[in-house]
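Anyone opening a protein record will find just a pair of labelled lines. A complete record is shown below as an example:
=====
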Amino acid sequence: MKRSKRYQELAKKVPSDPVPLEKAVEILKDFGGSTKFDESIEIHMRLGVDDKQADQIVRGSIVLPHGIGKTQRVIVFAKGGSADIASEAGADEVGQEDLAKKIKDGWLDFDVCIAAPDMMGVVGPLGKVLGPRGLMPSPRAGTVTPDVATAVKEYKAGKVEFRNDKAGNLHAVVGKLSFETAQLHENISAFIGLIDSLKPATLKGTYVKGIAIASTMSPGILVAA
């Protein structure tokens, strides 16, 4: 892949060895100001897990201390009083069969899909559409819940979902380049701390094999684990 001159120049400033998180964040902040938009900050972690082992899948969600700098579009499958509560909590769209049909017809203009447990009969058939896009509601992620109001508020505040891929890699957005250095440091530290706490009991060998952070348009910076 051919990289831009800007990317190549930034790559020259990246240390070849892992550096402490605080230093890595400072380097990223120094990269700022050369693009026309507020870049997202991403974390990439390489874990020594075996995705084929169900008890070694690392997944979950977290509400970062300072959010992710983005207002997420949240839809909710609910009826009756739960539907009213979801709307009051700030859901962008609430529905039942009508909402399911809209999605089947190709509408996917949202970031998070939440469902009350009694709506899974309606949501289940959408798995082929929502699943590959990471939008299928899940009890483990907290998107299938009777407390739809709390779920809506958390995702509106920047709740982040994560799951390792088949190679054991895990990726997540942890903020914006415009965040203060301390805010990014706290967000990333909170994320790494949660992943550390989720180490599978059956795992043998090294759990966290590598950590890197990057902005949307920058090279990655290795972080000392």
